[in-house]
Amino acid sequence: MSHNIRVLITAATLSATVLSANAFAGDRADWPESFTVGTASQGGTYFAYGSGWANYMAENLGISGGAEITGGPVQNLALVHTGELAFGLTTMGPAAEALAGNSPLAPGFKLDNVCAMFPMYETPFSVTVLASSGITTIADIPAGSRIGFGPAGSTSDTYFPKMMSALGVDYERRNGSWADLGGQLQDGLIDVVAFAAGIPIPAVSQLEVQSEIRIVEFTADELTKVTAEFPVAPFTIPASTYSSLNDDSQAVSMWNFAVAGCDVPEDLVYEMTRLTLENNEKMVSIHKAATTSVAENFVKNTVIPWHPGAARWFNENGYTIDVSQTR
């Protein structure tokens, strides 16, 4: 597996006021000295959310931590499964495929050493163009248009091309980081960016500061077609998300969860889950998408077995996860 797109982004130096080991009831003897969470490309929500979360965990747990730029959810599952990374961020579609042995990175091999920690947010699939393009609907996209689908192997790159084909769009496929694709759209090197990331997407927010853009929504018929064929659900992007929106925009979405290697120490995952779910205000300060990173949304995981440490926190706080749902 090629990792040449991966760059380690280390967390800030720990403060002298870091909580001591005595602050935690569990046994820290088997905790690692450091940890890394797999995110995705810069300019996307995974990187902003994951790097902020890693810093927050490091500052409160007394171990150094950081985020790693990766190809996104599909690659994160493989890296966590093999133990190259202890933690990662993923979406339900790629997770279901990986657990079934259908990951494009390891076809026929079940990536099942991956356990759920906590819910993150829904990833909307949305289309962005320059306002000057004249494109107002997906059906308006001219044949042969150059569409940027995000990093190769990402959730967007896995599902959005198939959705476009199902909707009758003829395109040239382009890949790259969200930040790079945003720049290419602005420079006229591509015609469309098909984003799949938590909102607000940093690259879109940056684009609309520098250019006049249009966020193209799905029609009712298009919604019916893609939700019937793909593991997505209807989603509304609120008009307040971007200055380019005058009204709510209809999209589709897929849920995201943070995952850990199933052999990561139980007490460490327990503490990370506790810090995340008991301090939502802090998580929202990291990224607005974390408004849905709340315990009640644990039910959105219908695919990934739960890590015993996470399950312990949920069960202690009134949310039932049976032992049969853990690994």
Question: How would you describe this structure to a colleague?
Answer:
- By secondary structure, this protein is of the alpha/beta class.
- The chain has two domains: 186 residues, 3-Layer(aba) Sandwich (D-Maltodextrin-Binding Protein, domain 2), CATH 3.40.190; 132 residues, 3-Layer(aba) Sandwich (D-Maltodextrin-Binding Protein, domain 2).
- It has ten helices and eleven strands.
- Helix 1 links the parallel strand 2 and strand 3.
- Helix 5 runs parallel beside helix 6.
- The longest helix has 17 residues.
- This is TRAP transporter solute receptor, TAXI family.
Quick tags:
327 residues, alpha/beta, D-Maltodextrin-Binding Protein, domain 2, 2 domains, eleven-stranded mixed sheet, 11 strands, globular, disordered N terminus, TRAP transporter solute receptor, TAXI family, TRAP_TAXI, signal
Give a short synopsis of this structure.
This protein has 327 residues and is an alpha/beta fold. It has 10 helices and 11 strands. The chain starts with 6 loop residues before the first strand and ends in an 11-residue tail after the last helix.
CATH architecture of the largest domain: 3-Layer(aba) Sandwich
Q: What is the helix tally?
A: 10
What is the number of independent domains? 2
Give the overall shape, derived from the CA principal axes. Answer: globular
* Major sheet size, sense and barrel closure: 11 strands, mixed
CATH homologous superfamily annotation of the largest domain: Periplasmic binding protein-like II
* CATH fold type of the largest domain: D-Maltodextrin-Binding Protein, domain 2
Strand content: 15-25%
Strand/helix succession = EEHEHEHEEHEHEHEHEEHHH
* Unreliable runs: 1-23
